Amino acid sequence: MSDQGLKRKYGPVDLGKVRVALDAFKTEMDGIRGAAEEELGSISEHILALEDILDYAKEPTRFTFSTVRLEDLEKAGVVRKYLFIQSTKVAELAKSLTANAEAVVLDLYSRIKKIYSYVNMDHVSGPRMILDAILLGVAEMASDEQRHVAILPGMTIPGEVYISHPTSGYELCVSGGNLDYAVVEYKNIWDNKARLLTPGGSDVMRVILTRPNSWLFLVQAKYQSLDRSFLDYVPEALSQAIAMLEQANLQKARFCLSDGQHWLFFILQLENGTFVYYESARWYLNRNRVESSDKELREIVVLLCEWLRPAANDLFTLQ
Questions:
Q1: pTM
Q2: Cα angle vertex 118, ends 117, 122, to 5°?
Q3: 90-123: string of b/e by CB count within 10 Å (b at 16+)?
Q4: Which residues contact 253 (CB under 8 A, 6 or more apart)?
Q5: Each residue of 77-93: pLDDT tens digit?
């Protein structure tokens, strides 16, 4: 069993309790009389070795999704690589939509233009209107008689996730929290819809476990300023992806980071016990681009559909 598997099953060791048990054992050994000197010497060596381990070991550094930094994740062994999306393939997919998808995109394009015409984008609520509209369009495009899509805003990721460097042993702990948006495809039967869409439902983990390749989540880059840029939200999105992998016991997660105008696409994989994430170049959907053409909107919607339900070949390469 891998170290990752052990961590999932048993969680972190309580070093304080180990120290107390060791001290109690030493006290008991001090009271032993008549034991062979050789045996006592061997036991003492083991005690000293365990004390050295405890002196070196430390409780993991604790973070939340919003406070963890990229350097913290890298220090814990998370590896960054690159995702190269083939723009010609995306353009080809965007031009070959079904009649239903074409109608959805045209309606969505009109809606996005209206949002940009009437809504200020300086605060969180404005960009969220863009994200809401686009995800609703994706749900319409991806749903049919057999399969439907559920959007789960604010889905909770319970518990904690521990990430440790395989060589240095540095470990951090990220507390659970809420996803901005989880998007899940499910078989179109009443029980699934009831679990996912009725109040008190949101049994998303069960659906993800039964269809591990048909879900994605999106993190909104919220309060941007001179002190915090769009890219500063990558660690928040990445730590949420790691938590989802751990909670659902999966090997891969697809996710996005966006403020409505800028889009990054990611794939996170567990490779030989190491978390490796692949990051795309930035895609754009700002006011000026939307005013001149629906091309960028079509391409982003196509990418989101592919991230939800991978179908196209040669869409990207991982390096």
A1: 0.81
A2: 100
A3: beebbeebeeebeebbeebbebbeebbeeeebee
A4: 217, 241, 244, 245, 267, 268
A5: 999 999 999 999 999 99
